[in-house]
Please model this.
Amino acid sequence: NAGVTQTPKFRILKIGQSMTLQCTQDMNHNYMYWYRQDPGMGLKLIYYSVGAGITDKGEVPNGYNVSRSTTEDFPLRLELAAPSQTSVYFCASSYVTVGELFFGEGSRLTVL
Amino acid sequence: QQQVKQSPQSLIVQKGGISIINCAYENTAFDYFPWYQQFPGKGPALLIAIRPDVSEKKEGRFTISFNKSAKQFSLHIMDSQPGDSATYFCAARLNDYKLSFGAGTTVTVRA
Model:
């Protein structure tokens, strides 16, 4: 089992560009999440999904969008990238409620 | 605004020593308190977790102590090993979907 797979691992964007971070899981988990990790700040929840077709905002959703068309995939879209979106992004999943989270290896995004 | 306050930011311990990381919270609605371990370049992974009706939980060299009245909990790493060098995050669950994470503690174990 691959678990949670994120692509790309690294990306540099120019201000104003857009991109999609991909996330897929093969554990048949219902719940999926996107977090961002900044130094000294822990992990902040951006968006989450409790199943295909259902998404909701987390703590820091501004500047991001998500969709969940299948159980396996939960892409994160960045529109009009800003330097404040420079961060490491983690996708995670859990079987039921947010007990044990399974994280991907992260996507490091730099906006210049 | 950090709902879970974690300290220290970093610590260095000699091999065989004890590492102690502390977390404090205000919201009494939190019902589950996990600790995650993260190695460089990897995502966090669940290490150990506790519910508020238990005062202590031990798994191998890792122990969580929980003080409900003080709204504090801590992670003790006994007989620390170089392989324990990582960043540790405490967290608290508010509801089915949301974990609030502490800021993280980077532990370095010197051989």
